[in-house]
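Appendix B.2, paired examples.
Example (i):
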Amino acid sequence: MSKVETDLDQTSQNSSEQAAERERQPLSRSLFVGLGVSALVLGVIIYAGVHERAVAASNLGTVTERAAITTVNVVEPKSGAALEEIVLPGNTQAFSDTPIYARTNGYLKRWYVDIGAHVKQGELLAEIETPEIDQQLEQARADLKTAEANEQLAQITATRWQNLLKTDSVSKQETDQAVNDLSAKQATVESMTANVHRLEQLQSFEKIYAPFSGVVTARNTDVGALINAGAGGMPQELFHMAAVNRLRVYVAVPEVDSEAAQNGAKATLTLDEYPGESFQGTIVRNSDAIDLNSRTLNVEVDIDNRDGRIRPGAYVFVHMKIPEKSKNATASHTIPANTLLFRSEGLRVGVVRGDHAELVPITIGRDYGSTVEVISGLKPTDQVIVNPPDSLTTGTPVRVNAPKAGGSR
């Protein structure tokens, strides 16, 4: 090979090496840039993970601190009594309720009314056959006629002897005997007359009349039944009547509310069978003594029932107004019953003071069931805790729950 060819080959080889070197230099830079970007992304990911954990740990601490503070709902006391009446159960009774018995013995001849019949006073209810009484009356009348005849003869004899005594035709002894015999005959007539009247009264009891206007609630006999007026056995009730135009209700009023039982005061009655309706009654009397066993006052409420809508024996609710006391009307407040805490040292309620709770002693007046009247211990601006936990003590950190939109706390 010549020198020229050798130089050309050397030149060509150098050119190829330079071209390869130029190709390797961009690849090295790309690889370096890629590694740098990868390291940067990895650093960002590691930083983000660490930051997220730090934030989560911080949030967990905040949530834990918040969870350690009790969240409560509060209510403000309402001034004055929330309810000015008491509602007590009672049973209606007929103003007059009586059984009707026979006053004479015999057999039932006919009855004219049955249960549910409304009758007037003096209306005939039934008739009884009394053949024995009828015969005894006839005999008594006959005995009376005999006695009257004997009396008339004794009257004539006594008058005659008194006239003969004036002429000394008879002795004074004989005259006195005739006069005394007249007196005896007159007493016999009076006795016979009284016996006739007695039997006439018994005979009048053959007809049974209504003693008052009312309704027949029971009929315990039928035609042909033997009627026993009590002679030699227990009498049998024939009818039972009740006067329902006016009803009376007996109510046991608790001693603490006995001031509501003022004679002449109005009372309202409600019944489950007439929802939305009320009936007006009047307190007419009370026992004026507290029952030692139940600590209640027995009160009678009368109600007009001429329309007959209320039946005797119906279960009713009696609403009585409680007289207001001017002293308590301004000082008392009303709170829900679920705010009360019963502790060994007495009745308490939890009140929010800033960021902690405070147990405040209170004194209650009337108990209305879902609410109670507080007569001392609270102010109208106090925030009373509703449904306080049993573990609540004075100084416990609390946070008031935010009220819902349009609602109360």
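Example (ii):
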Amino acid sequence: MLSRDENHILTQTDQGTPMGDVMRRYWLPALLSEEIPNADCPPVRVKLLGEKLVAFRDTGGRIGLLDEFCPHRLASLFLGRNEEHGLRCVFHGWKFDVAGNCLDMMNEPPDSDFKDKMWTKSYPTVEAGGVVWAYLGPEDRIPPPPNFEWTQVQATHRHVSKNRQECNWLQGLEGGVDTAHAPILHRAITANTDRAGIAVNSNFVVGSAPALEVDTTDYGYRYVGVRALGEKGNYVRAYHYVMPFHQFRPRQAAGYQGQPAKPHVAGHMWVPMDDENCMIYNFIYSFGEEPITEEEWQEIERGYGRGPQDILPDFRTKGNIGNDWLIDRQAQRTETFTGIEGINAQDVAVQESMGPIVDRTRENLTRSDMAIVAARRMLLEASRTVADGGDPPGVGTSYYNVRAIESVVPIGVEWRDALMPDMYPKS
């Protein structure tokens, strides 16, 4: 259980807050590359850590991330003209490049040099893995680029999507690192269903409740759920938590209905838009020789409840808090544990159902919540470290080489001996 002050520290990310200062020390997903696919295409609104921004790709292909509001009269640059290496405000024609420099002022006389004295806030960006990442922190503390393994594989071997969640970012993260809920919340209750769910005969469901183990690292921690399968051994799912909001998980090879057995890793990033909304970036990649086809990706997205047919223009899902996540009580009685269609749609539903910012002073945690407790402690410690002028965990490059793994480990074999080489394959 957290104190009220600790809960406030962890959930508030505006500029000048302790957790906001921590978040601003990392590269943050700002939008998908496909949202600004071409030079001089329309700009896109972005909201990060409470800041309203606008992103655009200029004539040369460079990406700018600027304060949404023109510094002249504060009209929105989302309305702007993306033209000739800059974004021009439609109100009075002030034009800015990707670095925020003012290039031109259509409302000023030719002899005016006022444009040379004017600029707007801009943030550095990089593209990696089909995502545009932004850095909102101090210039002298900019970290190495976000070269996660999934960003470095061929484009044919990865896919990434995003959807909006209407609650605080920490609720999403804590749901992600909670391995105990998966065979309960996500289970199918019959083999005779086409609905997405963990199969009744999977290791997830037939195994015991998990014994959780957490090992702290310099990027966050690795953690496993060990489920006893009797004489078959122990079913071990090994994950990574990378500060501040990344989770890597093995993709169940045979448990989710209709999914092929390939060497995949999946994960999420719960990026704060503001204190009551976050954007979930979902990725999956193959570290084997076979690519992930578009057909496979669409099947995966449908199974998770975030396929094209499930997403609204603002990246909210059609099943949302306003319509009780489209819960089907008949399906809940006869097919799936929740009656909510889609694995991640179920996650979003329970996390949003807690309210915009959950009151953690009322919780009663158990041993299966060890990973959640570890994340909270790490984030609180990071807030103290940054306040004292230090660097938080995970701003280096050690996370470049992490991979989530699952396996049935024979009785008497230590999971670290069996799986650690595959969890850090390039060490």
